[in-house]
């Protein structure tokens, strides 16, 4: 995620380098909804506002946000994830 943090000599040791750009809003929405499957009410979708908030996070951070939200939901004996819980998980990953 941060190639500038790596030593340039490291890159010379590889024949190919694959770049994974950060996800756009649509990819963010699909990733979060995929990982929250079964924890979102059937008529609820990941909102555009939350996908805008999550811009700048990589795929790993998105998945961790979803997992943190699921853990919170289970530990609090809830059936579905509350949007505020997911918002807080995203906010923590952005800071």
**DSSP E strands, number:** 0
N-to-C series of helices and strands: HHHHH
Our estimate of the beta-strand percent is under 5%
Q: Kindly report how far apart the N and C termini lie.
A: 16 Å
Main sheet makeup: none
Q: Specify the helix fraction band.
A: 40-55%
Alpha-carbon Rg, integer: 16 Å
Secondary-structure-based class equals mainly alpha
Low-confidence parts lasting 5 or more residues at pLDDT below 50? none
> What integer is the average pLDDT?
88
Shape label = elongated
Number of helices: 5
Main attributes of the structure:
about 100 residues
Can you offer a commentary on this structure?
By secondary structure, the chain is mainly α. Helix content is 54%, strand content 0%. The protein contains five helices and no strands. It has helices spanning 8-12, 25-35, 48-53, 59-75, 83-94. The two termini are 16 Å apart. The mean pLDDT is 88.
């Amino acid at each position: 995620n941060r190639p500038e943090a790596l030593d340039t000599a490291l890159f010379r040791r590889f024949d190919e380098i694959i770049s994974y750009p950060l996800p756009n809003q649509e990819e963010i929405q699909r990733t979060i909804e995929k990982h929250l499957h079964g924890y979102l009410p059937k008529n609820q979708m990941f909102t555009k506002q939350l996908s805008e908030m999550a811009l700048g996070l990589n795929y790993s951070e998105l998945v961790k946000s979803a997992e943190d939200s699921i853990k919170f939901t289970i530990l609090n004996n809830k059936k579905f994830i509350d949007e505020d819980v997911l918002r807080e998980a995203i906010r923590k990953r952005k800071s």
